[in-house]
Structure to design on (200 residues):
């Protein structure tokens, strides 16, 4: 059954890509509707204090870049991973342009508790089902304080739900490097949470 579903998903993706290459306006809308939430989440976590206006610009740049590059997509990774890789470069460009790393509080203001549920896996002292609103704010602060590469790796792994291989592909690093970033990021996040006294 899983193979059938995978085959259907692959065929559906292939059809979508072909329609996009043929400049089908309905396909462009479908592409945006399906992939925009993951792209926006990734960018928000990568550029912690990005404004709504700048977020919209980076999302738009990501999709413009993706549409221009579709003919180069070879299917070596999932379409989601491929799009997030483009988002990664656009987000890095945004960081370089604006140097926004000092304003973290507005960063992830709209992050839901579901999006930070990976904290439960990062620390035995924090249970995702008992994180209250105050703790969520502290989790946001802790996540935003991590080095950019660790924050990106954690975001891809736990917020976007990518496998380690896909995290590595999106960040254009080796699997070993991706694993190291995730491990270090989880350890650093746990330390930040202990410092902030986030407890069940």
């Amino acid at each position: 059954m899983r193979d059938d579903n995978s085959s259907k998903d692959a065929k559906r993706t292939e059809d979508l890509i072909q329609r996009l290459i043929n400049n089908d306006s309905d396909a462009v809308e479908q592409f945006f509707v399906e992939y925009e939430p993951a792209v926006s989440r990734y960018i928000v976590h990568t550029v912690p204090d990005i404004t709504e206006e700048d977020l919209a610009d980076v999302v738009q740049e990501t999709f413009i870049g993706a549409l221009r590059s579709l003919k180069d997509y070879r299917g070596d990774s999932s379409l989601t991973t491929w799009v997030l890789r483009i988002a990664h470069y656009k987000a890095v460009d945004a960081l370089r342009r604006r140097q926004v790393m000092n304003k973290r509080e507005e960063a992830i203001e709209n992050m839901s508790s579901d999006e930070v549920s990976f904290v439960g896996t990062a620390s035995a002292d924090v249970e995702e089902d008992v994180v209250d609103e105050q703790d969520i704010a502290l989790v946001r602060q802790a996540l935003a304080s991590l080095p950019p590469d660790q924050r990106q790796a954690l975001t891809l792994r736990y917020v976007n739900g990518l496998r380690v291989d896909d995290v590595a592909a999106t960040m254009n690093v080796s699997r070993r490097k991706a694993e190291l970033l995730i491990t270090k990021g989880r350890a650093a996040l746990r330390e930040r949470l202990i410092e902030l006294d986030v407890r069940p």
